[in-house]
Amino acid sequence: MSENEGVRLQKVLAQAGVASRRASEELIEQGRVQVDGKVVTEQGRRIDPETAVVHVDGLRVQIREDVVTIALNKPYGMLSTMEDEMGRPCVGDLVRSRKERLFHVGRLDAETEGLLLLTNDGELAHRLMHPSYHVKKTYLAEVPGPLEKGLNKKLKEGIELEDGPAKVDSFKLISSVPGKALVEIVLHEGRKHIVRRLMETAGFPVQSLVRVAVGGVLLGNQRPGSMRVLNRQEVGGLYKLVGL
């Protein structure tokens, strides 16, 4: 790329929603911006937004306007597929009108509600799903109560399932009423129905299940079936999590 090609760095940062052009110039001046792993302090540097990797304060910024990552609150009963030949409700129905060709990052089974990420960033999706990156997922599960003493320890140490042992990163009782308990389960496993199988084998079959977080991205108070585009901090946090 010659010096006259590309887009000025401060303009790219402003378009990506980092800061105004003037404030972006100050960020560059303060040495807080990296392009392809190197700190840039000179003003007017031109970059190719299609190929450059830009970090601000150590967090990667998605500078391509055609790349998007979305948080969906998947409703109960909906399939985590982009289409279904039997015509059953699926995630693809919700994004059909969007111009980007999105794909789902992992799956939630039909009976599980909650946070499902959709993106057209192939490398990000691949790494988020790859077991070697240990991306933590947080669930709220309703199980029969009362819980047995030592269940926490048992789940952390691991339980033998038919396809090998599985364990949680953390397990916490949130609330309980007679006969029922609400628990928070954090794990980085991605095997099919892992939370349900784990809890069933432990003797506490899941009655309802909601995924409330993936890494640092939280479901919050999003309505079932609603979508929102992740903000810069959330996207940067996901990149950091998977070493991008």
Task: Summarize this structure as a short list of keywords or feature phrases.
single chain, 244 residues, alpha+beta, Alpha-Beta Plaits, Pseudouridine synthase, 3 domains, nine-stranded mixed β-sheet, 17 strands
Describe the structure.
With 244 residues, the chain is α+β, with helices and mostly antiparallel strands. The protein has 3 domains: 7-61, RNA-binding S4 domain (Structural Genomics Hypothetical 15.5 Kd Protein In mrcA-pckA Intergenic Region, Chain A, Roll), CATH 3.10.290; 69-132 and 220-242, Alpha-Beta Plaits; 136-214, Pseudouridine synthase (2-Layer Sandwich). It is 22% helix and 30% strand. It has 7 helices and 17 strands. The chain has helices spanning 9-15, 21-29, 91-95, 122-129, 151-157, 194-201, 232-241; strands at residues 7-8, 33-35, 38-39, 46-47, 54-56, 59-61, 69-74, 103-104, 112-119, 137-144, 159-161, 164-166, 170-177, 180-187, 208-214, 217-218, 227-229. Strands 7, 8, 9, 10, 13, 14, 15, 16 and 17 form a 9-stranded mixed sheet that branches. The protein has a 4-stranded antiparallel sheet with strand order 3-2-5-6. A hairpin with a 2-residue loop joins strand 11 and strand 12 (164-166). Helix 1 packs across helix 2. The mean pLDDT is 93.
